[in-house]
Known about the structure:
Elements: E1 5-9, H1 18-28, E2 33-38, H2 42-50, H3 56-68, H4 70-90, H5 94-107, H6 116-127, E3 139-145, E4 150-154, H7 159-166, E5 176-178, E6 181-185, E7 204-207
Parallel strand pairs: 1-2, 1-7, 2-3
Antiparallel strand pairs: 3-4, 3-6, 5-6
Helix pairs in contact: 2-7, 6-7
Amino acid sequence: xxxxxxxxxxxxxxxxxxxxxxxxxxxxxxxxxxxxxxxxxxxxxxxxxxxxxxxxxxxxxxxxxxxxxxxxxxxxxxxxxxxxxxxxxxxxxxxxxxxxxxxxxxxxxxxxxxxxxxxxxxxxxxxxxxxxxxxxxxxxxxxxxxxxxxxxxxxxxxxxxxxxxxxxxxxxxxxxxxxxxxxxxxxxxxxxxxxxxxxxxxxxxxxxxxxxxxxxxx
Length: 218
């Protein structure tokens, strides 16, 4: 793999923190990485790693954030589990397709549980005015464009704005705006953001972190 692998990070909420360990091992083993694709909390981890930064400081920051907002994180985990189960039962049916679109149309614009400023202030501390041009390893964030309700991969602009798109989980945080368009995290369509990858991304190393059966609280 002369050009390296495309690393795709999966996992919602607090489970995503495990990807810090995954990336640390890849760095220690000097595995060449040509791009990281992420969504949800993994957007923060991917950007931090892409800048060549040490990841240990992120563990402490995440631990403090999730401890303070754990009741909301549990709701995110539970909703994700419900949607995955529904997808397994009904994927491919017209009924599922219509209800998925209805969910997007009705729920994605409700007032969020947490204010956008909460995460935006933290992202400004983490990334300041750095842009994607400052990344040593390119990062692409998988999101849903609310105007089309389609998955897209975004990879340019201010780093804090790009990451904000990735963690804009509907209902938890408000939608994020970039270049006049509104986006939310693509985790509703799948925790492992593989849908927009192409042959050019091969070989792909996908890290899936499924929720343990019968477990709902982190």
